[in-house]
């Protein structure tokens, strides 16, 4: 009887390995390509990309550090969760060559040019997300940005809590890059 059970387990394992191998050979489904001005649902976020720019100042008007420049993405963004969140930059991943040299992104509210600490639930805001990087870093005229989302689970497997988990790429956004204009004085 033990020999029969062991044999059945071996056949089952071989079958599963075969299915995994066949699945690995199937063509990968291409992810969507998003355009500026089109609403994008990305897990806990909904946003519309307005554009991208490169300049010598942060969105609040402060000059970039010496030898640096600022890459900025402007968006209309809505937090779709039930609580205030500060991970608003997580859906946006720059090309690895840019991400390697860019500082951690900082968000700004467009309405008053203040640094963005939290986006509140269901309160749409126009925001700018900015990365500082070395001034000699080449930025393409058409900026590809990978868009990531998380999945809501009412109960996770480890602690039984609800939340947003498993970040995964949901598409690519391509934005034309313009030269930045100086920020207006909010006063």
What does this structure look like?
With 187 residues, the protein is α+β, with helices and mostly antiparallel strands. The protein has a single domain, classed as Immunoglobulin-like (Sandwich). Helix content is 16%, strand content 40%. Strands 1, 2, 3, 4, 5, 6, 7, 8 and 9 form a 9-stranded mixed sheet that branches. The longest helix is centred in the first third of the chain and has 24 residues, at 2-25. It starts with a helix and ends in an 8-residue tail after the last strand.
In summary, what is this structure?
By secondary structure, the protein is an alpha+beta fold. Helix content is 16%, strand content 40%.
* CATH top level class name: Mainly Beta
CATH topology: Immunoglobulin-like
Structural class: alpha+beta
**Helical residue percent band:** 10-25%
Radius of gyration: 22 Å
> What is the count of β-strands?
9
Order of helices and strands: HEEEEEHEEEE
In round numbers, the mean pLDDT is 87
Q: Main β-sheet, in a few words? A: 9 strands, mixed
**Beta-strand share of residues:** 35-45%
CATH architectural designation: Sandwich
Distance between the termini: 84 Å
In the predicted model, the low-confidence regions spanning at least 5 consecutive residues are none
- Helix count equals 2
Shape: globular
**Number of self-contained structural domains:** 1
